[in-house]
Amino acid sequence: MRTRFRPDRRLTARMVLTVFLLGLVYVAFVAVLVSLLRSWVAIVLIAGGVLAVQYWCSDRIALAGMGARIVNPQQEPRLHGIVDRLCAAADMPKPRVAVADTDLPNAFATGRNTERAVVCVTTGLLRRLDTGELEGVLAHELSHIAHRDVTVMTLAAFLGVLAGMVTRFMFYSQLFGGRRRNGDQTYLLLVLVMAVSAMVYALSFLLIRALSRYRELAADRAGATLTGRPSVLASALTKVTGDMARIPTRDLRTAQAFNAFFFTPAVGPRPSLATLLSTHPSLQRRLDQLAQISAELQEAAPEA
């Protein structure tokens, strides 16, 4: 899909590298399972089926998880008007538009391709942001669709879930189905499977987090460049991050499964050490980048 969003070659390179490395990790994972276990075929087939469902139904799963609904222009004229203007400016197909009825101020994009793409905002975000700030957030989310990183993140994030599923299945199958074997042999097999699975999950976790942080910076750049107003995106970031601390902890925990897709993570203040494990770069890092873009745009503007 060609749009007026600038191609981000560094983001594309990181997505290709992440998928390649995850592929290597999971090929090695399956190879170890094949060497250790006899019932791996059925397990891999089941896991593959779940992955297919996740891929083909990712948009519906995400919307259902957030309790969101698709809305038409009559129901949300302001929201549709902004999306219409941005899609025209970006020369891209208009995605479906959804609203989640929650006070959590956030937004996300999902869908396996442009035809199935959805951009969703919460009622909490609609109440808190003015039209300019909302435009900045939606430009950020539309860039995720244009750059196709939504699809990559959907698949990459599920691979970690897949490793956990396979591990639990094998643990219980060996625990309750391994009585015919020597007890020490069964115990050693379980330890090996759990150790390999833990390593796979840890590597996947770090790779996905690194890609997620970079893609958020790339979306900030693309959205700010499209609107030509980095300051409104910075204002939205500051406002949403500040209000996130006022959201009840229970509501934040409920939404944390979507953190890799959210505009800002559903977490309260965190120590700097946690940044390495975060799905998003720090607020200061994002604001610094937007300030730099603003300065570059002012330098490029023709003098009156």
UniProtKB/TrEMBL annotation:
* Free-text cofactor note: Binds 1 zinc ion per subunit.
Required co-factor(s) are: Zn(2+)
Location of the active site:
E141
Cross-referenced Pfam families, in alphabetical order?
A: Peptidase_M48
* Gene (name only): htpX_1
| Occurrences of domain Peptidase M48 (ranges) | 73-292
Q: Could you identify this protein by its name? A: Protease HtpX homolog
Asked whether the keyword Protein biosynthesis is assigned, the reply is no
Q: Which GO terms describe its molecular function?
A: metallopeptidase activity
CDD domains assigned to the protein according to its UniProt record, in alphabetical order = M48B_HtpX_like
Q: Does the keyword Transmembrane helix apply?
A: yes
Q: Which organism is it from?
A: Dactylosporangium salmoneum
Cellular location of this protein? Cell membrane
**What PANTHER family has UniProt attached to this entry?**
PROTEASE HTPX (PTHR43221), PROTEASE HTPX HOMOLOG (PTHR43221:SF2)
Q: Which UniProt keywords apply?
A: Cell membrane, Hydrolase, Membrane, Metal-binding, Metalloprotease, Protease, Transmembrane, Transmembrane helix, Zinc
